């Protein structure tokens, strides 16, 4: 795309129809609109994933983390009780 733009110069007799038609495709808003829609779609997926993790995953995992920590302390207490420390 850049190479084709480097070779473009203003026609000697002033801008003509071919000049405007070649720039019309380059300056078209359609690619910008398409990329904006794709960006909004991807952002909405990221928000849904973030909300799912915050609302559903963390409350489920938090008690399991506490239970694992509790079991670790119980095992350590049993080890120290057996050795007499």
Question: Can you walk through the features of this model?
Answer:
This protein is mainly alpha-helical. It has one domain (2-83). Helix content is 81%, strand content 0%. The protein contains 3 helices and no strands. It is rod-shaped and about 100 Å long. 0% of the residues are buried.
Relevant terms:
single chain, 85 residues, mainly alpha, rod-shaped
**Average pLDDT over all residues:** 77
Helix content: over 70%
- Can you tell me the residue ranges where pLDDT is under 50 for at least 5 consecutive residues? none
The number of distinct structural domains comes to 1
Spatial gap, N to C terminus: 76 Å
* Beta-strand content: under 5%
- Total beta strand runs: 0
Rg from alpha-carbon coordinates = 32 Å
- Encode the helix/strand succession as letters: HHH
Blueprint of the fold:
Layout: H1 2-6, H2 17-26, H3 30-83
Task: Write a compact overview of the structure shown.
The protein is mostly helical.
